[in-house]
Amino acid sequence: MIIFRLCSIISLVNRMRYYAKALGRVFGVFFSLGRKARRTKFFFLLSFLPVAVALVIKFNQVFSESHSLDGLYLFTNIIMLFYLQLIILILALFYGTSVCSEEVEGKTLPYLLTRPIPKSAVVLGKYAAYTVIVIGMISLGMVFSFAVLNISRLLDSSSYLTLLRYWGVLTLGIIAYTAFFTFFGSFLRRSIFFGLLFSFGWENVIQYFPGSTQRFAIIHYLKSFLPSSSSGRFSFLTFRLEPTPPGLALLALFLVTAGFLGLACLLFSLKDYVLDD
Amino acid sequence: MSAVIETNRLSKWYGNVLGLSDVTLQIEPGIIGLLGPNGAGKSTFLKLLTGQIKPSIGQVSFSGQKVRNNYALFSRIGFCPEQDSFYEEMTGWEFLTSLLKLQQFPEDEVRARADRALETVELTGDKKRLIRAYSRGMRQRLKFAQAIAHDPDILILDEPLSGMDPLGKRKLIRLIKDFKEGKTIIVSSHVLPEIEALTRNIILIHQGKIFAKGDIHYIRDLIESHPHMVSVKCADPRRLAAQVIPENYVLKVHFGPDPRTLLVETNNRDRFFGLLQSLLLKNRIEVEEITSPDDNLQAVFDYLVGK
Fold first, then answer.
1. Given 3.40.50.150, 3.90.1150.10, 3.40.50.300, 3.40.190.10, which CATH number is that of B5-223?
2. Range with the lowest mean pLDDT among A35-39, A211-215, B151-155, B276-280?
3. At CA A37, angle to CA A35 and CA A39, rounded to 5?
4. C-alpha to C-alpha distance for B144 and A192, rounded to whole angstroms
5. pTM of the predicted model as reported, rounded to 2 decimal places
6. Which chain B residues are Cβ-neighbours of A275 within 8 angstroms?
7. Of residues A89, A100, A92, the one with CA closest to residue A131
8. Which of A75, A211, B67, B157 has the fewest other C-beta atoms within 10 Å?
9. Domain B227-304, second-level architecture
């Protein structure tokens, strides 16, 4: 009995090692491919749009000699306006949906389905590769925006806590949204269209609904990590109602990520994808 | 010889459309040609064999092991898809090494195998070029390279010769033949001479059903008995018609919608063409065009199934 259990544990460990190795290989291949892809260059430029805005603001401040607005305040508003509500949604949408759909539309799926790797490892490996690429793009843009707007306080360590906090929120957002859109791409043919409807319809509207309805939007949980009463003219973008406690918000984001990735893996493993001629 | 691939009552429907119906087969090592007109179910059959789609009914097994979701088995299978599709932003070298990495080989072996496969298909000199800059022939050879790079026991090639020039076809046919030692190779095509150049063992597939399996000579005999239509467009089709009618291998003669076109149905194409040549020369009839409108596999299949 003990020997039988030992054998099954060893077999399970071996299978897990094989799975981890397969996952690593898929990640490596698609991280390398995704990094060099033309769309990455385009989205890299898009992720630097807030940096351009920050530069314009800074030049304006320098030449008009007006310093009425604090750099950190401007930085947090740029994050809210550009990154949280626009850029991470677009990037997660295009990269997330492409995890499955680019293989079907590009008709490259047979190359992956006839390799000795579990189908779920294909989905998870590609998801991880694209998520890391998007996090990298966003992080660079964010750091540059921060540096431009806070050039005078780069030696002030307390401002880095704000940077770290917002970076954490955006990273969590990318992880959750990309997982959600990976699921979208695994079963919808026009996943970009429906993804846009979700991003700029559902997410942007539901978060302002009264009561607990706003908890049906992913962005609600992301905003729960941010200061709930930010001053200034963009404060309406953060909260109308009470935020979810950070621990619960983290749990909700984890469940969204794990749930949708699990569904995407299941669909990808079970569904027959028909490649159009 | 024992069967490597076995299918049992294999069937596939796409909604209400029949893809494959009740296929029970045993395939032994060697090259086997899967021959059928476009839309016959060849690709569906090959996708079912490689576990890319799940059967509606029935099962596929390789050496007794089921295929679908048995990913460990895929280290023994090489598949060359029909579609001319690649990760276009990769070079030929990156494409091959990436797919070999997914076969779980160590890094140095990945490089060695990629080099060997590229050398086999004569693409070593172009390995650093982007795939999107490759010609059709090079792309076909690269597809073949990714299928053989991990040295599989079972090689499944879906229309590997389609779109290639004659020289390219000859090269690829040689490569497939060189690879066959001790392997099981299935090659699909809708062009009989392509299959004939590769093997004598063929499976005829039509409308999702296996129509015949066996030696190519048997199929050839069937095809030879198929009446061929020959269309001759010339200045004086009536005079020509009067002279071909008496021959016993001319089954039917009629005129096309264009009054200058004569349509002749014959069960001996070689003798008919000999006669036609002599009559045209003797009577000095000027010919605009000679075509065989039903000289394709679909017509042969339609004849064989009694349409």
1. 3.40.50.300
2. A211-215
3. 110
4. 33
5. 0.85
6. 83
7. A92
8. A211
9. 2-Layer Sandwich (3.30)
Query: Which residue of chain B comes nearest to A271, CA vs CA?
Result: B53
The DSSP secondary-structure symbol of B183 reads: -
Interface probe with A: pick from B80, B87, B95, B128, most Cβ of A within 10 Å: B87
Q: Which residues of A touch B85 (CB under 8 A)?
A: 106-108
Q: State pLDDT tens for residues A202-256.
A: 998 888 887 788 889 999 999 999 886 555 555 555 545 568 899 999 999 999 9
Residue with tokens 């307390």: A158
Which one of A108, A115, A277 has the shortest CB-CB distance to B86? A108
What is the distance between the alpha carbons of residues A121 and A265, in angstroms, rounded to a whole number?
Answer: 8
What residue of B is the nearest CA neighbor of A118? B71
CA-to-CA distance for B220 and A223, rounded, in angstroms?
Answer: 73
Nearest CA in chain A to B106: A25
User: Which residues in chain B are closer than 8 Å to A115, comparing Cβ atoms?
Assistant: 71, 74, 99, 102-103
C-beta separation of B225 from B267 below 8 A: yes
* Chain A neighbors of B52, CB-CB under 8 A: 109-110, 113-114, 272
Q: Please count the other Cβ atoms lying within 10 Å of the Cβ belonging to residue B17.
A: 8
Look up tokens 């490892």; give the residue.
Answer: A121
